[in-house]
Amino acid sequence: MALDVLVTKKDVSESVEQMQELSRCCEALSQKLKEASDAFGDFGAVIEKISRSKGSGEHCNALSTFSNYQYLISNQHRYLGELLQREFGDKIGDIKNEYEGRNRVRRDEFQSEYKTLVKELKSSEVANSKLRKGKIRNLVSYKTNLASLTSKLDNIDRVYHDYYVDSYGLIEEASGRIVERARSVVRQESVVFGKLAEKTRPGNGLDVLFTEDVDADVDVDADAEAIAVDEDEDVEDGDTTIREERDEDEAAVRAADDVEDDDDDDMSRRDERYMQQAVELLRQEQPEPAGDGSVDRASEAAKASEADADQPMPPA
């Protein structure tokens, strides 16, 4: 026999116990959900009383809305508890009972068929023993009986194989039916909690509880965005200012260098011009060879040259 999984009697018993435990847990969960429903209802009733009191003032509407939402949660929990019991817990009990019944029938069929084959095998063994012990042996009858024995052994092997295959198939089918029930419950659970979440959307009746928070969040987000924009602009302005200042400094340095070069050139040209004037003046006023007045004229020319040299240079 080539089987991937052999389902034994112990496996069948454990499967039945697990289904029973699942049914009990589902019943307990259903009861807890109903109790939670009652608790939410009581909670909503107290909130409703507070909303109707004189001290609620301008918060009356918000408290009343909160109370109604608790009533909605209460109703949804009660519906979910009844759904679990009706669509899952009771169905699991039916699946378990059906599995037990079908498995019992299949086991009885296997045992009956197995006993029949075993009896036939024993009869063939007795006949084969007589043929083997006889003084005169009929080889044809002996071979035929051996073939019958082999066939009966193969039939017993096949009966075992079919029984284990069917046993595994029954458990797998039961698990598949549980999955179908689980899908149904999950869909209903998503609807229940989806309705509760849908009520929190704008325009679905709970705006009075969320308006202030939403406005506050919007203001905070707007302020944060404005601050971020201002910071970016400040950074850009700062970078621009730094670049402008650097360019101005470089231009001032270049201008100062140009002025210094121009001043040096002007001073050199002035010095050369005055030196030429002094030389020409000295040449014009050289002393004559005769007369005492030549010394005086030469002395006066030298003084005039020195006076011209001491005078400040005219601006360029």
From TrEMBL:
Gene3D superfamilies: Arfaptin homology (AH) domain/BAR domain (1.20.1270.60). One of its GO terms (biological process) is vacuole fusion, non-autophagic. This is Protein IVY1. Residues 244-257, 294-306 have a biased composition (Basic and acidic residues). GO terms for cellular component: fungal-type vacuole membrane. Residues 244-316 are annotated as: Disordered. One of its GO terms (molecular function) is phospholipid binding. It comes from Pichia membranifaciens NRRL Y-2026.
